[in-house]
Amino acid sequence: MEWIFHIGIAQSIFSAFILFTKKHKSQADGVLAFWLIFIALELIHMLLEIKQSPIHDFTSNFGFYSLTFGPFLYLYVVKLTQENPKFRALDLVHFLPYVILSLLHLAFFTNRPLRLDGLDSDSGWFILTMSRVVLLCISLSVYSYMAIKIILKHKKSIQDNFSYKSSQNTLSWLSLVIFTFLATYVILIANMLSGNLVQSIVKTPHFIPAVGLTFFCFSLSYFGFNQPVLFQSVNPLEAVKDSKQGLPYLSDVKSEGLLKRMTAYLQIEKPYLNPELTIQELAEGLKLPRHYITEVLKSLLDKNFFTLVNEYRMEEVKNRLLDPDYKNDSILQIALESGFNSKSSFNAIFKQHTGLTPTEYRKGVK
Length: 366
Hints:
Distance between the termini: 64 Å
Number of helices: 16
Radius of gyration: 26 Å
CATH superfamily of the largest domain: Rhodopsin 7-helix transmembrane proteins
Order of helices and strands: HHHHHHHHHHHHHHHH
Largest sheet: none
């Protein structure tokens, strides 16, 4: 069953190459590419052990690759959800456990095979192995928790920044991938502590962890390639932090003037017809700092960006349903052309605003 290792290794390296050579890659793409390289190294390490290759003795000096997966997960989520993310030297601190254990192995157990299963009676080796298990458990738990926490916080901000919801901007796909990641390493750790019980069942060492890592790699590659940058680059002058918590940026007169300007822009230019409209794009269209729009919406309308834009889309739908020029168009076609990005979101918002289904409403207006 070694084929599963070859598939996982090939997919990891190929995906990393595509990300590294991507024309407009983000920092998140870079983190993901390095993560995939380390997944490949982990699978290669397992495969070399199965083949009892002499190279395995040397690669064991750096075989604590799984300790990097938690930090990569955390940094990937941070770089995706952060506005204007920047590389910081502090980011490398997360990889210290991997570096320290590798140095300890080099110092005291050079070229001694590092097995991914079972324990050893040698006291020094036992301590190193158990340190690896303990650190891996802590790393997986802490970094997965921090990643999920960031995703949940990000989801709460969706309606202030986006006019739509999808698995990409809510990062729901990443939550599923995280659980796959955790399940894989729960099996791996249980296998290590049980003296490689899995091998006695499937007859191939590391088969189940390899399956999990390969599936994890394919999922991460597929969704990672399709994951857009969530936040466009913002001019530093516009990225003003509200250091006056609770104090308005704008006077009431100026706020009302900006609201009129924004309303006219929405009615004339109809940017809401773009199903993936963001508050940053609206701000650029109005040539205003983004936080001005947020403040006007909250102070004068008590609405978020998501609600405002979808109200305009709703009015567009209702106008088209009354317009004889659109009588032969399906409701779904009208909804999509009005800026909604899916049938389910349109139906939910329509029902919420009118109390009727789109079909019932159309019959009523006829």
